[in-house]
């Protein structure tokens, strides 16, 4: 059937007929991807030794993470996940040139819940890699999976992340609101071990992050914002602080590393435009934008935004649960 004839036939069919057919096609394409050459290559290049093999443990929560050159924060975010009651953390190092790999190895020796591994695939492919880590967590007995970035600190209102998820027996997936956090202007850079206050946007961003019920395979979308497979609409249940901008040097390095990985993966230029645009700036332009950003004169690093609306909060590393001082507008 020619392309125009196929389109004509499809357009003539009622939506209740077309929608199920599209869902079937989508499901077939996802299964083809799961068993395809690229996903199998990614799976082979991720190695995590010593993981248990066991049946699902009801209420068991595991966290999974991909890390590259995150030596200033990866120990803090991993320990934070442990403090939030998770039963296991799988975190893999993607060719870091700093101490990230050795720090993760040390954490694994310190706490048996930490399973440090290696990701030898240089391409970005965040969604496909996270999908495989979620499979490993399921295989280890997880009931829930929380995919977190190295610069994310997840919280639940009034309790721990693990305790909240464990009491949602009929829920398949939940969203976490994302709140950007920054160093104080007078500090210029963030040291999470210092106990210093930080700035946090008064309201969350429009972006959400996803946590989901473990199963043999899930298709995680790029950025961990949602699952690519259809399902019930996630309910909002969690919040997270996002420390993506900790110093000028750190953010510039992250953006350049990210652009290189995107290029290696052949990703479309519509993905991570903020990294691509930052990589094109001169050192002077980056410094100027950083200064206006941490001072609050600009609400983002684009150079075109208006003033920020932020709140100074006491050291959030001491928070047992989300925003105990109720300083932020929860966006409800």
Secondary-structure blueprint:
Elements: H1 3-12, H2 15-34, H3 37-45, E1 46-47, E2 61-67, H4 74-83, E3 88-93, H5 100-110, E4 114-119, H6 126-139, E5 144-147, E6 152-155, H7 161-166, E7 173-182, E8 198-201, E9 208-213, E10 235-242, H8 248-265, H9 273-279, H10 283-295, E11 310-313
Parallel strand pairs: 2-3, 2-5, 3-4, 7-10
Antiparallel strand pairs: 1-4, 5-9, 6-10, 7-8, 7-9, 8-11
Helix pairs in contact: 8-9
What do these coordinates show?
- Residues 297-316 are annotated as: Disordered.
- The protein is an alpha/beta fold and 332 residues long.
- Helices cover 36% and strands 18% of the residues.
- The chain has helices spanning 3-12, 15-34, 37-45, 74-83, 100-110, 126-139, 161-166, 248-265, 273-279, 283-295, and strands at 46-47, 61-67, 88-93, 114-119, 144-147, 152-155, 173-182, 198-201, 208-213, 235-242, 310-313.
- Helix 8 (248-265) packs across helix 9 (273-279).
- The chain is globular, with a radius of gyration of 21 Å.
- The mean pLDDT is 91.
Feature tags:
single chain; 332 residues; alpha/beta; 11-stranded mixed sheet; 10 helices; 18% strand
């Amino acid at each position: 059937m020619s392309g125009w004839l196929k389109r004509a036939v499809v357009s003539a069919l009622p939506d209740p007929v077309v929608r199920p057919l599209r869902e079937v096609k989508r499901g077939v394409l996802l299964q083809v991807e799961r068993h395809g050459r690229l996903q199998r290559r990614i799976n082979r290049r991720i190695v995590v030794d010593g993981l248990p093999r066991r049946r699902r443990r009801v209420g068991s929560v595991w966290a999974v993470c991909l890390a590259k050159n995150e030596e200033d924060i990866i120990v803090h975010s991993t320990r934070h996940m442990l403090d939030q009651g998770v039963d296991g953390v799988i975190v893999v190092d993607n060719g870091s040139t700093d101490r990230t790999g050795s720090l993760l190895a040390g954490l694994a020796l310190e706490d048996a819940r930490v399973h440090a591994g290696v990701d030898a695939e240089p391409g970005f492919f965040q969604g496909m890699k996270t999908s495989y880590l979620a499979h490993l967590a399921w295989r280890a007995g997880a009931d829930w999976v929380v995919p977190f970035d190295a610069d994310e600190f997840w919280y639940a209102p009034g309790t721990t992340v693990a305790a909240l998820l464990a009491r949602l027996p009929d829920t398949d997936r939940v969203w976490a609101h994302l709140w950007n956090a920054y160093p104080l202007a007078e500090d210029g850079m963030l040291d999470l071990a210092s106990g210093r206050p930080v700035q946090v946007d008064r309201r969350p961003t429009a972006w959400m992050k996803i946590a989901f019920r473990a199963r043999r395979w899930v298709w995680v979308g790029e950025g961990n914002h949602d699952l690519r497979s259809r399902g019930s609409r996630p309910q909002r249940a969690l919040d997270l602080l996002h420390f993506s901008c900790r110093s000028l040097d750190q953010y510039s390095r992250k953006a350049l590393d990210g652009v290189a990985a995107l290029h290696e993966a052949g990703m479309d230029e519509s993905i991570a435009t903020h990294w691509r645009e930052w990589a094109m700036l001169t050192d002077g332009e980056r410094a100027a934008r950083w200064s206006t950003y941490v001072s609050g004169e600009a609400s983002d690093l684009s150079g075109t935004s208006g003033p920020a609306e932020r709140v100074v909060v006491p050291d959030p590393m001491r928070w047992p649960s989300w925003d105990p001082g109720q300083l932020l507008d929860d966006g409800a």
